[in-house]
């Protein structure tokens, strides 16, 4: 399955100056637990911001032109089509882990969203999710993983 995973502020902010605009260790732990053992695709800006491969995951980094050093568990891919072709052969889930450009590029193939609700407005953020990104999805489940943090699971509505 292709699953979008994001932490989103009340005003849809997701990033600032190439980084996350907050630090919630419980959310980082939730992200790690959820995605471990699977494949994660991220845009080049997010790859730079993380700075190293995510452990116990296949890291797929998207960039049209940039190069990265060859290293175990990291695959550089040049287009969404390349990633989609690979995804057919994966026996694990593929998590789309951002940032905004990458979420937007994969929006038509994402079948499920896992969204951590950050209980803040980040007025000076520079990267946002579109407010309608969950159009066509319905909420299925809520996971409370810390006193002040929860993730909501959304699945694509079945067309009748
Ligand atoms: N809150 C969250 O859950 C969350 C999650 C992830 C990231 N973030 C934040 O989001 C911000 C980064 O987001 P962003 O939108 O600037 O960047 P991004 O999506 O991480 O990276 C964008 C770059 O990825 C490459 N790319 C994306 N789609 C591609 C495609 N279909 N084919 C080829 N290359 C593709 C391009 O690189 P080239 O220009 O090199 O071709 C593009 O410029 C940071 O602040 C980060 O911390 C937040």
Features:
single chain, 160 residues, alpha/beta, Dihydrofolate Reductase, subunit A, 8-stranded mixed β-sheet, two-stranded antiparallel ribbon, 4 helices, 10 strands, globular, binds NADP nicotinamide-adenine-dinucleotide phosphate
What layout of secondary structure does this protein have?
Elements lengths: L1 E8 L3 E3 L9 H11 L3 E5 H7 L7 E5 L11 E4 L2 H8 L6 E3 L3 H7 L5 E7 L8 E2 L8 E10 L2 E8 L4
Parallel strand pairs: 1-6, 1-7, 3-4, 3-6, 4-5
Antiparallel strand pairs: 2-8, 7-10, 9-10
The structure holds NADP nicotinamide-adenine-dinucleotide phosphate.
* Count of structural domains: 1
Q: What percent of residues adopt helix (DSSP H or I)?
A: 10-25%
Question: Over all CA atoms, what is the radius of gyration?
Answer: 15 Å
CATH names the topology as Dihydrofolate Reductase, subunit A
- How large is the count of helical segments? 4
The molecules bound to the chains, other than polymers, are: NADP nicotinamide-adenine-dinucleotide phosphate
| CATH homolog superfamily | Dihydrofolate Reductase, subunit A
Principal-axis shape equals globular
- Oligomeric category: single chain
User: Which stretches of 5+ consecutive residues score pLDDT under 50?
Assistant: none
Main beta sheet strand tally, sense and closure: 8 strands, mixed
How many E strands? 10
